[in-house]
Amino acid sequence: MQDLAKTHNLDAFWMPFTANSQFKQSPRMMVSAEGMYYRTEDNRKVLDGTAGLWCCNAGHGRREISEAVSQQIHNLDFAPTFQMGHPLPFQFAEELAEIAPAGLGKVFFTNSGSESVDTALKIALAYQRAIGQGTRTRLIGRERGYHGVGFGGISVGGIVNNRKTFGSLLTGVDHLPHTLSIEHSGFSRGLPDYDPGWAESLQNIVTLHDASNIAAVIVEPIAGSTGVILPPKGYLKKLREICTQHGILLIFDEVITGFGRLGSPFAAQEFDVIPDIITSAKGLTNGAIPMGAVFVRDEIYDAMVSPESQAIELFHGYTYSGHPVAAAAGLATLNIYRQESLYTRASELSQYWEDAVHSLKGLPHVIDLRNYGLVAGIELSSIAGKPGSRAFQVFQACYEKGALIRVTGDIIALSPPLILEKHHIDELFNILSDVLSTIEYKE
């Protein structure tokens, strides 16, 4: 197989979220993928332990999706959705509304999770103004939250490296505390019991600013990119109660947890907590074509879109909102999810997955293990003065042994395609166990 790293100049591509100099000295190149596996330029199979970047829930190389994309791009490559339309986004939105939590029947299309978050924040602000609550402009995120890389998303987000370079960001933003306490709930199986009143901290913010100034709260039901932080039992319900009490919109960022990752179509259904707005992307099209979607309560749409009005109600959107080729990919993806029962696949395998995750307890430098559905976080102790180095060395060693994992800081995050079988779980954790047991760290 052709060595792409040697036959192409790697200098021009400024890679995202990557140590560019380090990568280009020793590239890791994927050239094809099928099912649960990538294939590298040196013709090695690598088990996908991360569903790409949390997005390829139905696995790789799905012909149903590529054929739908091919047919659509021949029939209609692009059509505008500003004051015009074409059938596919209407059909796609209808099918999405059927699997969404009850009452969230309106869908606004974007092109990514970052755009979905910024869209949701803008809808929340516009809605509060539309119902005569224009003083409600404050937004509340959470420490260690990740909501993409738009200015709105990084403002409500709470990961320091995503924020520190970009100035003051949006004003009028507060943050709830994150919900991780290794001291009190380390090595929990599923949702932890320990909760010192994290949700009640929202009441403190209300007391400080008054509810009349707060538009929305946005949280990930399970925080993914920061290293898989789980909500304690009852936490999300309590957030819902406080938001409802004070007329504050609750936004769930389900870019990661949507489309079966936890054992239900959405985390809102898994935890029986219905927000006002849900953001999504990633699994929406199985990662095949960039696309995002924002699910909105019918009451929000009805408050903003009057049957008698002839004016544009929301001055927001993207050239590619509802793109025909992306919608075709999404419709094919939903069909796979339905036919192969992938929305509940995580629930069926969750116990086997949980046992595999916690089999790593006691291995060198493993200080916490967290799991729910088909997602896991493996936290390692840091090398003094070199945060993130230990996990990155594990990442490199696993890749060489044939498994793709994801690391954030010194936390390993796992989220395999939902088509995996028990023998794939065995393969993944055998590699991880071997690496964690034998690796000689460069300190």
Automatic annotation (TrEMBL):
It comes from the Bacteria. It is an enzyme of class 2 (transferase). GO terms for molecular function: adenosylmethionine-8-amino-7-oxononanoate transaminase activity; beta-alanine:pyruvate transaminase activity; pyridoxal phosphate binding. Keywords: Aminotransferase, Pyridoxal phosphate, Pyruvate, Transferase. Its cofactor is pyridoxal 5'-phosphate. Its EC number is 2.6.1.18. It comes from Vibrio brasiliensis LMG 20546. InterPro entries: Aminotrans_3, Aminotrans_3_PPA_site, PyrdxlP-dep_Trfase, PyrdxlP-dep_Trfase_major, PyrdxlP-dep_Trfase_small. GO terms for biological process: biotin biosynthetic process. This is Beta alanine--pyruvate transaminase. The lineage of its organism: Bacteria, Pseudomonadati, Pseudomonadota, Gammaproteobacteria, Vibrionales. Belongs to the class-III pyridoxal-phosphate-dependent aminotransferase family.
